[in-house]
TrEMBL record:
InterPro entries: Mur-like_cat_sf, Mur_ligase_C, Mur_ligase_C_dom_sf, Mur_ligase_cen, Mur_ligase_N, MurCDEF_pg_biosynth, UDP-N-AcMur_Ala_ligase_MurC. NCBIfam families: murC. The keyword Transcription regulation does not apply. Residues 107-281 form the Mur ligase central domain. GO terms for biological process: cell division; cell wall organization; peptidoglycan biosynthetic process; regulation of cell shape. It catalyses: UDP-N-acetyl-alpha-D-muramate + L-alanine + ATP = UDP-N-acetyl-alpha-D-muramoyl-L-alanine + ADP + phosphate + H(+). ATP binds at residues 109-115. This is UDP-N-acetylmuramate--L-alanine ligase. PANTHER family: UDP-N-ACETYLMURAMATE--L-ALANINE LIGASE (PTHR43445:SF3), UDP-N-ACETYLMURAMATE--L-ALANINE LIGASE-RELATED (PTHR43445). It comes from Flavilitoribacter nigricans (strain ATCC 23147 / DSM 23189 / NBRC 102662 / NCIMB 1420 / SS-2) (Lewinella nigricans). Residues 304-428 form the Mur ligase C-terminal domain.
Length: 445
């Protein structure tokens, strides 16, 4: 194969596969709707990208077209390729094909999979296993969402959206959580379990291993290969969690090992749970205790996963991708634990009309735990508006009088009148475009 073309190349999963082909000498080009920090980085690496639906900008001699379901079916370039009979592959199909030639560790779950897969890749690399990795975020230790390795092992984030992870057949797998999400795809919670995560578990290779967060193991009654893990629960568990010297410190216990006083640089009880899965896989692959300790201490996290953007003597600013009620609760709880007694101000941008409709009461309950709430309009992403669905569905249910509903254009002027102690931006839409302006405002104030 000489030339590959990506429709939606700027997506976090798409760009990882684009990097895979580019590193192997394939000429990579593609389209995306808007230029971002990530697409500019891809261009710097040598890929050709354009930002308008323009069939004339497509190079000649394309061997493979990769697309994401996030791109509408009536997209001019997709229609062009279909008309001419080009081989079209979804991102997930391509990832499945790549994985078949390697031994695969797949990390699935409605939340926690990006941090956990990044942590697993970092632990393995630190321990001397030169794994390849396809990640759903920019991992700080690699400054990338793709890691080029030389060993037989591959770590991959297994995405449940559009049932993408059913293209994988892993040797080892982790399911971090199975809370309802993507109900626009699955319909209801029973379907996401049966046609999503249980179907994924059935794709495990014969003799493979599956670790499931201990709250969910009851759903896997007829799966003999399922093992439980978690924080204060499961056969593979972390316990005795405390904060010492700026690290989240804990003990790890499994049928094979007992490690005391492990230190994780990344804050939050939920991240200790993610680390539990990474430690377990590292030990299963024969890594030393010393390598695991070093990896945890040196783990730099993932961009937009509880990422500390700014800190001075008085104020802290943290950015987080949280876009589900469970993720909001975890981020807010981590901030409370790390900065006890400080005033927490959160700016939240709901992601998708359908998710807002499905979880409005959950969002409201999670946000009520903040001291001050600033709520933005819904980021629609791939969706058309749903009548009667807006951020007001959440706003009206927030049980805290210190709340404000504003548009994006009003946000910076609203912040100018405030003096936040611990500020969080939360959401999966384009709220990240405010990270730099907010940081600049805090630095200059």
């Amino acid at each position: 194969m000489k030339k590959a073309y990506f429709v939606g190349i700027g997506g976090i999963g798409m760009s990882a596969i684009a990097r895979y082909f580019h590193k192997r000498g394939v000429a990579v080009s593609g389209y995306d709707k808007t230029a971002t920090t990530l697409t500019r980085k891809l261009e710097q690496e040598g890929m050709k990208i354009h930002y308008t639906e323009d069939v004339s900008a497509i190079p000649e001699g394309i061997d493979l077209v990769v697309y994401t379901p996030a791109v509408p079916a009536n997209h001019a370039e997709l229609q062009h390729f279909r008309k001419l009979g080009f081989p079209l592959k979804k991102r997930a199909e391509v990832l499945g094909i790549i994985s078949r030639s390697m031994r695969t560790i797949a990390i699935a779950g409605t939340h926690g999979k990006t941090t956990t897969s990044s942590m697993v890749a970092h632990v393995l690399q630190t321990g001397g296993i030169d794994c390849t990795a396809f990640l759903g975020g920019i991992a700080g230790n690699f400054d990338s969402n793709y890691v080029l390795g030389q060993s037989e092992w591959m770590v991959v984030e297994a995405d449940e959206y559009d049932r993408s992870f059913l293209h994988l057949s892993p040797d080892k797998a982790v399911i971090t959580s199975m809370d309802p999400d993507h109900l626009d795809i699955y319909g209801d919670a029973a379907s996401i379990l049966e046609t999503g995560f249980l179907a994924f578990a059935r794709r495990l290779k014969p003799g493979g291993q599956l670790w499931v967060q201990h709250r969910f193991t009851g759903e896997f009654g007829d799966f003999p290969e399922v093992m439980s893990y978690g924080l204060d629960g499961g056969n593979y568990r972390s316990e005795n969690l405390r904060v010492e010297n700026g690290f989240f410190t804990f003990d790890y216990r499994s049928p094979q090992a007992h490690l005391k006083g492990l230190e994780l640089a990344l804050p939050g009880a939920h991240n200790v749970e993610n680390a539990t899965a990474a430690i377990t896989i590292g030990l299963e692959l024969g890594l030393s205790e010393d390598a695991i300790r070093r990896a945890l201490r040196n783990f730099k996290g993932v961009k937009r996963r509880f990422e500390t953007i700014f800190r001075d003597g008085q104020r802290v600013y943290i950015d987080d991708y949280a876009h589900h009620p469970s993720e909001l609760r975890a981020a807010i709880a981590a901030a409370r634990m790390l900065y006890p007694g400080r005033k927490l101000t959160g700016i939240f941008q709901p992601h998708l009309y359908s998710r807002t409709q499905d979880f409005a009461d959950g969002f409201a309950d999670a946000l009520s735990a903040l001291d001050e709430i600033i709520l933005l309009d819904i980021y629609p992403a791939r969706e058309a508006p749903i009548p009667g669905v807006s951020s007001e569905l959440i706003f009206d249910q927030i049980d805290n009088p210190a709340k404000e509903l504003v548009t994006k254009s009003e946000l910076m002027s609203l912040l100018a009148g405030k003096s936040p102690e611990v500020l969080l931006t939360l959401g999966a839409g384009d709220i990240d475009t405010f990270v730099e302006p907010i940081a600049d405002w805090l630095k200059g104030e």
